[in-house]
Amino acid sequence: MLNDLMEKRKKILAESEQHKNSRNDLNAAASKFARERNTLNNQTREYVEEAQKNKDLRDKYNQEVLDLKAQRNDLNDKANAFFEEIEAFKKEHGSLKNRGIKELQKQIEFMEYRQQTEVFTTDKERELIEKIKQMRSQVKEQETELEQNKEMRTKITEARDYRKGASDLHAKVTEVAELAQKHHDLMVESYRKADKSREAADASHKNFVESQESADSEHKSFIACQKELRDYDKVISGLRKKTKKVKVTKEQKAVRQEAEHLFKNFRAGEKLTTDDILLLQRSKLI
Prior knowledge:
Layout: H1 2-93, H2 101-117, H3 122-146, H4 150-267, H5 274-282
Helix pairs in contact: 1-4, 2-3
């Protein structure tokens, strides 16, 4: 019976070690996933903060674009007012028969815009540049003729100044709008990275939870095995004590029988050795 119990205890001990090792491996995996999750969460926060910074800059530049456009439009309106006065003067005096400066200027601006935003072949672009050059020449000719009149010369100068100011502001609008678009693109990219990082963090957290739950299950099984081992140890210990007691009792009985035999022989006149005397003393027969 004792041997059967020892064999069963051996199997439970092996099972206990298996659960302990599995628990430790799963806890190590859970810690690894937790570290990955925390790193990814920190990374996500950094991406979101970066996105917010770019969003603030984008909004700032967009507002600046609106302000610059308002200033540009105001200068264009002032320039147009002077050009209208110039056109009225031309009609009144009938000295110029070509298209008005205002109309030419609008066409020049339209063609310059096309040149900046559209893709042309080399020949087509050269043709467009030539048309712009011709129109500028026409504007110059008309302005030169109008400048013969002192009042018109003043108006043309002021109109040119306003138009130049509007053109400079338009260049600034383009520059600032590009900055706004740049930060918008950076914001979108940062949010995209944040979403990807957050998704990876969620996956790591899921793995962490699963590993932790499995580790807890293995730990419970390990504890159950430990309890079972303690129960086996109690039973085995009891059996060993009982077996030892029985063995001692048998040995004592055998010694007693031998001592009684020696004592009987002693009484019959036989001599005793030192060992015989010690045996009789231990048996309390002498």
